[in-house]
Design brief:
globular; alpha+beta; 1 helix; 6-stranded mixed sheet
Length: 93
Amino acid sequence: MKKVLMFFVAAVVAISTASVGLASGAHKVSGEVLHAEGEFVEVKDAKGKVHKLHVAPSTKKSGEIKAGVMVEAEADASGHALAITAKAPAAKH
């Protein structure tokens, strides 16, 4: 009986955690950095839309984030970047 109860509790916790993640509105942003100053970065995606991201000290960063660099970021619904990664430039032939 205890095993069934523990399984049920674990399932409820897992489902509620997944629901919170989906409800948070996290989304991916990929594109070229137009402007990076202080804790804010503007990224222009492939469709031409400009996304203003807040890159706080808590944001997981990889590579040098500066104007002209291609990046991929994961941001929440309010525009706070959870993670941002600079992409290596494509090899020229």
